Amino acid sequence: MLVNRARSEGLRLSGEGGLLQQLTKRVLESALEGEIADHVGYDKHDAAGKNSGNSRNGRGGKTVLTDVGSVEVKVPRDVAGTFEPQIVQQRRLTGVDEMVLSLSAKGLTHGEIAAHLAEVYGAQVSKQTISTITDKVMDGMAEWQNRPLDRVYPVVFIDAVNVKIRDGQVTNRPIYLALAVTVEGHRDILGIWAGTEDGEGAKHWLRVLTELKNRGVEDVLMLICDGLKGLPQAVEAVWPRTVVQTCVIHLLRNSFRYAARQDWDKIVKALKPVYTAPMAEAAEERFLEFTESWGTKYPAIVKLWSDAWAEFVPFLAFDVEIRKVICATNAIESVNARIRKAVRARGHFPTEAAALKCVYMALMSLDPTGKGRKRWIMRGQQLNP
């Protein structure tokens, strides 16, 4: 009958008020009538319902989000107020789930998502329902975190974003991210790992790198990081030929911790000849000059650079164009910016798993098409813009 009406009235197939929406409305309302009949124990207008202890009590309107748009349905009610229709919950179709995940990945809290859906679509979606939807990503996250990887990566970057986790009390905890450049020139996010408040050592990094090796990574030409404790030793054990490069930007920033604010510009100017030297030997000469000028006032800066020297100098063996890529973890900073935006909106997380879920959804929201900021690959997952 709806099809005949659509033909006679020129009704559209899709869109607001279209045939598909009306069909969806009829299916949903028929299913709801079946549910209320099962709940109260009698069919509509059946005399068996008289004095049964519970009975129908009219209907109320509710907007349900579906793949064909928002559909207004009449939901039956009972006198006892115990009827909870399941079909409406089941009609959280793919489009709704994707909308919730997308909003969550952009940093909205569950309460903000519920308010947004109510305001824009008139749909009542509880915070518990939203939590249930976002929990679905955990299975996908486990699959993604264990997917096979390439045999060789020219460059791998490892960096951390700090999140607040309530474990008795709120503490800062790092979430580590590994991003690789593939031999084709794409960027592949290899995985994420939670760290501890006190920092990690060689044992932790040996476990992480062994995991990557077991997933197929036989060799990495160069690994760039922020002087993470124990990482060079772990790299030596897992990939003996890999060159470890300390991020020069982080080395400069760490130097400021030991210098007065009014000397920061002078420190940068004095260290620039060191990290822009044409070769390692020239860098060592410039560093000796820096030590003579600033070593007495800031011995901690001299020690910082001396301790990191073996991991600082490798990039100086390359051409200037390549140096720009491998001397810092800048390649991963735009990813970290997306993550920070998402975690800041949450304040703190009740568990480590909740923090990892938020970070993972933020990564899922990166544009993989090449039409946005960068071309990203997160193999094993379908990403949403």
Automatic annotation (TrEMBL):
GO MF, any single term: DNA binding
Pfam families xref list: Transposase_mut
Domain of life: Bacteria
GO BP annotations listed: DNA transposition
Keywords recorded for this protein, A-Z: DNA recombination, DNA-binding, Transposable element, Transposition
Keyword DNA-binding: yes
Region (Disordered): 43-63
Function: Required for the transposition of the insertion element.
Family, per entry: Belongs to the transposase mutator family.
The name this protein goes by in its record: Mutator family transposase
Organism: Actinoallomurus iriomotensis
